[in-house]
Amino acid sequence: MLAPREHWGSRVGVILAAAGSAVGLGNIWKFPYLAGQHGGAAFLITYLALAFTIGISVMLCEFIIGRAARKDPIGAFAKLKGGLWPIVGFMGIAAAFAILSYYSVVGGWTLAYILKMMTGVLVNGTSQELGKVFSNFIENPVRPIIFHAAFMTLTIAVVIGGIGRGIERWCKILLPALFVIILILLGRSLTLPGAMKGIEYFLQPDFSKMNAAAFNAALSQAFFSLSIGMGAMITYGSYLDRTMNLPTSTIWTTSLDTSIAFLAGLVILPAVFAFGFDPNAGPGLTFITLPAVFANMPGGVVFAPLFFVLLAIAALTSAVSLLEVVVTYLVDEKGVSRRTAAWGSGAVMFLIGIPASLSLGVWKDYTIFGKGIFDFLDYLSSNLLLPLGGIFIALFVGWFFSEKALEEATAGGKHRFPVARIWMFICKFIAPLAIAWILISGL
Ligand code: TRP
To answer: Which of 97, 103, 318, 380 gets mutated to test ligand 1 (max ligand atoms within 8 A of its CB)?
Structure first.
């Protein structure tokens, strides 16, 4: 006989686990530099609009599919409908491999930077020197891979603990810690002389910058940041109990995720402006500019390691959710033990991560469709697989599962769901059409 399916311990625990998945490198590393590149406030507004219409709706669909089926993404589509639908689940598993392999490389950078910051090596550098430190580090063929292995091992260790005693327990500790750290850093950043320029940049919209590229970036970012489009929330939903109020849980998760992204922007952009850096610096913004900012600022020796601890925590609770998608699949469909599934799939992702890491250094010249392996994995997953997954998930719930979905959303009429019809309309029409339009215009 199979053991009964595990489930989350408490409502707060589930929300923190889902928020832990959502809040990650996407919020603190990607969001501020994307906002920097796409016009600050203009990007923020586009992002908010997409996250709270399409994003939140797709997240609810995922929770519903997961809880209704109580299975991994592939098994869930097979059980609820069959036909070709399980392919959506397969795409999700593929996306999990693609994302976690490079995500863990960046996770390793955060661990390395905690050490670099604690030893004080970086505290006195100019921005050029710090840029060199960063590129030397990520281009090194060995060191980043050791940290990538360390990060993946941590992820595996949490996942082996299981849903309640691994993921939920750690998210309950780490997420509040993250929140406190970000508030401390916010206090520091906002009181820097010259911070106001950064705040203005972030909060005063320049609508001329709201073009197709900005929409595309905001949409991909919404999917990535909310952890939707590949079945992570289907997986987490499959461990939910029948009575939980799903619509309010999605509102909580989306709001927490968006607030942390917003706060990260408010920590990073004022600091960047206060020291006269370029907000347009791209992916290096966090790892180059911020250490420079900390180096120049009173109390930097403390704030710098603290910031990278924050980043590492955020990355870990997200990485865990990516690995859990694959582990749940192997446990549910292949009868593999949780421990074997976690070590096995983690090892494969670690191996795919190696060329991703090398592609930033010694393998710079190998490209797929004109992109290095690292960028290719990122592009393939965030710009293609996740939005595509989102289209099918919304279509599935909107057209093939709508009545049961409404019942599931209200737990059989137990909870009120006043915007049910708006949500259905978004699933049926708005989400698939808008995502398809933004996808096509981005190609
Ligand atoms: N949301 C996380 C971030 O912002 C990354 C992440 C975790 C993710 N699980 C996911 C992205 C599932 C897409 C799908 O960093």
So the answer is: 318
Whether residue 327 has pLDDT greater than 50 = yes
CA of 103 to the centre of ligand 1 (A): 9
Contact 127, 298 (CB under 8 A): no
Q: Are 89 and 74 in contact (CB under 8 A)?
A: yes
Q: Where are the alpha helices (DSSP H) in 275-426?
A: 284, 290-295, 300-334, 338-358, 373-378, 386-395, 402-409, 420-425
Q: How far is it, in rounded angstroms, from Cα 410 to Cα 178?
A: 32
Question: How open is the CA angle 423-429-435, to the nearest 5 degrees?
Answer: 100
pLDDT exceeds cutoff 70 at 122: no
Q: Which residues pair with 368 in a beta bridge?
A: 371
List the end-to-end C-alpha distance of the chain, in Å, as a whole number: 50
CB 20 within 8 A of CB 318: yes
Q: What interhelical angle do 338-358 and 300-334 show, nearest 10?
A: 130
Beta-carbon-side half-sphere exposure of residue 190 (alpha carbons within 13 Å): 13
> From ligand 1's centre to the CA of 120, what distance in Å?
31
Cα–Cα dist 425/49, whole Å: 16
The token pair that represents 192 in the structure block: 């820097």
- The answer, yes or no, to whether any atom of ligand 1 lies below 6 A from the CB of 24, is yes
Q: Radius of gyration over alpha carbons of the chain, in Å?
A: 21
Q: How far is the CA of 386 from the centre of ligand 1 (A)?
A: 10
CB 182 within 8 A of CB 24: no
One-letter amino acid at 377 equals L
371 forms beta bridges with 368
**Distance, CA of 181 to CA of 109 (rounded, Å):** 19
Reduced DSSP (H G I as helix, E B as strand, rest coil) percent helix, strand, coil of the chain, to 5: 75, 0, 20
Q: What is the pLDDT of residues 76-108, one digit of tens each?
A: 999 999 999 999 999 999 999 999 999 999 999
Q: What confidence category does residue 351 fall into, taking pLDDT thresholds of 50, 70 and 90?
A: very high
Q: Atom 10 (ligand 1): residue with closest C-alpha? A: 227
- Beta carbon of 225 within 6 Å of any ligand 1 atom: yes
Pocket test for ligand 1, best of 34, 321, 349, 378 (most atoms within 8 A of CB): 321
| Cβ–ligand 1 contact at 110 (below 6 Å) | no
Q: Please write the tens of the pLDDT for every residue from 252-298.
A: 999 999 999 999 999 888 888 887 888 877 777 888 877 877 777 77
CA-nearest residue for atom 12, ligand 1, is 227
Of 393, 394, 389, 392, the C-alpha closest to 426 is: 394
